[in-house]
Design brief:
By secondary structure, the protein is of the alpha+beta class. Helices cover 31% and strands 18% of the residues. It has one domain: Sandwich (Jelly Rolls), CATH 2.60.120.620. It is globular, with a radius of gyration of 18 Å. The two termini are 34 Å apart. The mean pLDDT is 95.
């Protein structure tokens, strides 16, 4: 296994201050393979919902995503991913799951939950060139920091920018992380993010990671895992992810694998009330 590629101290400080990082071209060398594997998942799973194809009318989403293919699962072993994860989360970080998407249109301003203890991050691969007005991810720098008036105001108001601030979502002050295939973007789950102007086939997938949960916060981990019942999962990870894990990857799976025993029953109940797995 290659040596990990550590983040620079400045990158860690930038992330801690602004809540995101950009890595232009970091995966340019693997992009052909990654795109092929991305398509292979959809080929095998239809549109991800009721066996249909993505038809461009609504977001299609497959969870977990990288777990479906050995080569995508192996991204967790890649020294570049491990370097980012270890730099931001510590050596014993957890893999929490992933989603693959065909996005349709805009995504409004939101955070991916709100975490003030364990740090949660998302790594996002966008597979097509995206500019500010054609669906590039936008972030509000500093919006991840808890306990300050700025992020409190954003939490209350960003989802209703027209009513609250008199500006439409695309006009909220933000940084657009314009990307080309092969770039990687990373953001804190708390960071307010959105995307505007994308088409009906905007391809991306993400990898969610977090710090290891201390034993006295295991219930919070179990609650997070329970949130995946809306995707009708019996285990938090896919079979390929677990079967192909060597000892190093397993370090980043074992805490979740030891704490997802409640998921199958919750998913059984979700299946009884939902027409299809959640689209996001
Ligand atoms: O690209 C997008 O439309 C938004 C992505 C997003 O909200 C997410 O991955 O949490």
């Amino acid at each position: 296994m290659d040596d990990i590629r550590p983040l620079a101290e400045q990158q860690v400080r930038f992330f801690e201050t602004f809540g995101y990082l950009q890595f232009p071209g970091l995966f340019a060398d693997r992009m052909d393979e990654i795109s092929r594997e991305f398509e292979a998942v959809w080929e095998a799973r239809g549109g991800g919902h009721a066996g249909s194809r993505h038809d461009g009318t609504a977001r299609s989403c497959i969870v977990p995503f990288i777990d479906q293919r050995e080569r995508l699962a192996a991204l967790l072993d890649d020294p570049r991913i491990r370097g980012i994860a270890q730099g931001l989360l510590g050596d014993d970080f957890n893999y929490m799951g992933s989603d693959g998407n065909y996005y349709v249109g805009d995504t409004g301003w939101h955070s991916d939950g709100w975490h003030t203890g364990i740090r949660h991050i998302k790594l996002a691969f966008y597979l097509d060139p995206l500019t500010r007005d054609t669906g590039a991810l936008r972030v509000i720098p500093g919006s991840h920091l808890p306990g300050d008036r700025f992020s409190d105001a954003l939490r209350e108001q960003a989802g209703r920018s027209g009513e609250q601030w008199g500006v439409a979502g695309p006009d909220v002050p933000a940084v657009a992380l314009e990307t080309r295939p092969g770039d990687l973007v990373c953001f804190h789950h708390n960071t307010k993010h959105a995307a505007f102007g994308g088409g009906t086939q905007r391809r991306m997938f993400t990898i969610n990671l977090c710090g290891r949960y201390p034993e006295d916060q295991i219930q919070d981990l179990r609650d997070y895992i329970a949130g995946h019942a809306r995707f009708w999962l019996d285990r938090n990870y896919g079979e390929t992810m677990m079967r192909t894990a060597g000892p190093e990857r397993m370090r980043h799976l074992e805490q979740v694998m030891a704490n997802d025993g409640h998921l199958a029953e919750l998913s059984r109940r979700a299946r009884a009330t939902m027409a299809e797995p959640s689209r996001g």
